[in-house]
Amino acid sequence: METAKRHMHLNLFLMNTGHHEASWRHPDTSPRRITELDYYCEIGRIAERGKLDSLFLADTYVLPVTVRHKVLHGLEPFTLLAAIAAVTSRIGLIGTASTTYNDPFHIARKFASLDHISGGRTGWNIVTTASESAAYNFGDRALPDHAQRYRRADEFVEVVKALWDSWEDGALVADKDSGVYADMDKIHPLAHKGAFFSVQGPLNVPRAPQGQPVLVQAGSSEDGKSFAAKVAEAVFTAQNDYRSGQAFYRDMKDRANRCGRSPDELRVLPGLYTVVGDTEAEAKELERELGELTVPAFGLQRLSTLFKVDLTGYPLDAPVPLELLPKADEINGNRGRYELIENMARREKLTIGQLIKRTAGSRGHAAAVGTPAQIADEMERWFKGEAADGFNLMPSHMPGGLADFVDKVIPELQNRGLFRSEYEGYTLRDHYGLPRPAGRGREGVRL
Amino acid sequence: METAKRHMHLNLFLMNTGHHEASWRHPDTSPRRITELDYYCEIGRIAERGKLDSLFLADTYVLPVTVRHKVLHGLEPFTLLAAIAAVTSRIGLIGTASTTYNDPFHIARKFASLDHISGGRTGWNIVTTASESAAYNFGDRALPDHAQRYRRADEFVEVVKALWDSWEDGALVADKDSGVYADMDKIHPLAHKGAFFSVQGPLNVPRAPQGQPVLVQAGSSEDGKSFAAKVAEAVFTAQNDYRSGQAFYRDMKDRANRCGRSPDELRVLPGLYTVVGDTEAEAKELERELGELTVPAFGLQRLSTLFKVDLTGYPLDAPVPLELLPKADEINGNRGRYELIENMARREKLTIGQLIKRTAGSRGHAAAVGTPAQIADEMERWFKGEAADGFNLMPSHMPGGLADFVDKVIPELQNRGLFRSEYEGYTLRDHYGLPRPAGRGREGVRL
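Output (structure tokens, whole complex):
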């Protein structure tokens, strides 16, 4: 568990050529490398050099319509993270998988397998799928509504956890003399029959090194936050200013508390978009350069998708047509991001073109554009002011922007005693300071 | 395609501590390593030293009831093969995935991703799931019958192939100057609505290095063979003698021919259980040693599962109760194996104990127990006599038995001009001498 002294937790948001939507057009990036393992190995090594807690890989089950002008995520999380596991030794590996379009048995098994392969370095970012078009890659039924998806997610996660616990520690005996390979008294069926799933169990993979991979969540709707407070050990969130960061942090810790959990069992990690320069001017120049590379047609498409209103015919200097936008509670998926960006447009009275540029890099996340000391200042403020337990880092471009962060900002944080200088443990639970869940015996896995 | 001179194709059946059911009890094996990546890396390196075509990983979605006395397969194929891909450079990686308990979108995507990660080294062993208990890990419905599973498999595979072709070669443009990342004229929806699946597409991974990963199949029922003749590029099979090997080989090539395919487009690869010794006596002694390590309770359980008759109370010296066994056409899953072992018991009038020992190593596959020259002789006979295009190698124990095969039998085969001395290409299609499928344009992916 957490010692008296808090330390920051830092994940890298492993996003193709970087978090800025035009990063792939920058001279320093290689957008063709996003399907090559070498590229991710290089990023993994840089992140491990920086002693980061983990790599975090987002995911969707649909080709974005914006792919004409926007680099892909590229590869599938289980396969990519397993490959990265083989060429790294300490960094955590957090993969995204949807509870709406998967089976609990497969998900429990793949994460257990990945946890063995990586020596206990995995986490599961639980999503319920926000994309309405993704639904049609899995049948002819529309995306279930928000509440329904979260009810399914609740049961899904309970089944997965029970499958992980269906092997007790020590069930694998492998006693050559007696010929007993597994102790059947320590392997338990679930015989689960619920509203969404019937799963007999047990799992066909021995208990994972971490007992259970770390559970991560990023929902920011009411349903999403309740769910996270109940099950998540780390929460990723988009908060674009310090005050809202503090409010969210307090809210999540309170919610966890009300679920009977210690606030320490839930790490709150806002996204942080970073542009690092040796001088402030250099950082701002890089941000301006990236801004110049945005493709207006893409920006219009991105806002249209977010706002569920077709803006593609609008001139860039027209004001954002706030009166046409739907109410937040009509949004089924990505609701938090919708509210955040809609608020930004309303508050600052932005034109469409301005909103595109304002959100092209940070996309609604907090942004730190400046020198290593300035970035470290901002991170320290959020961390000490209880707006964050750490950050989900979103370098403007990669691998260059990541290398700059690791080689320039990390030493600043280390010098201030805010971040580890060496890994102290081996598993993701070690890095996060989270306990390894105990087993629960035969009756315990009966839900 | 194949040049005038035929060469053998050799896959390693990547089976935990080896193919002999008691291999895990042998002093030279480490049954605890089956959940450790290091173990598979070591095997991958040995296999690559031997210039083998591929590693083949079988899979099931259920914990075998026999796990009390029998080492597990251990890890999940996509995660394990991706990790092995990262530490090998040439060897092919064939993973098993069921069409009965998966979604085509996920399977297409994971194999496409694995193909990128490995630089074009993947193959999909298509199974329809034979285990009746596996069904209950995915709902409360019984395993669909054989014919129904194959109807679903037919459509499943067509959808997966269309998803692989939903990106044409060259669709990923990544033109920094124009801001065009993907050429939408080369990315195609499927809009598929069939009896089993509705899948909109396109895939969210660019076209794989091999165009399509290699399709492998191992069904030996009538439905299975028809399916393989239509879609498979390699067929794994259990044939326990040369004559039945020849008959199966001819049958499969004829079937492929009747489907309008060249016989060269379908590799027939029987399993070959190997026990290597520097002398014949040494090999036989090792086989005897392994036989002594079999656990009778496990053997009885294994035969009970195969025969669908409870033999656990029977004495080992009782004859196999042939009169109690079901008819082959009542067997739903693993029917080929059932017939083969039932025939063996009938033909040779075996006791239960004898049948257990006879099948503990080879489990119904051809067996070669002897010196490197003797094993090479047998392989040459099968290969030249058109009983095999190569073999799915099943070393008695691993990694030792594999290393013996690679270091002693492979040079024999190379000296005889039967097997490659160096990899000539990079992809699994290169190794198998199979062409890279062309794309098929927008209309082509409409099934």
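The first helix of chain A runs from residue 37 to 49.
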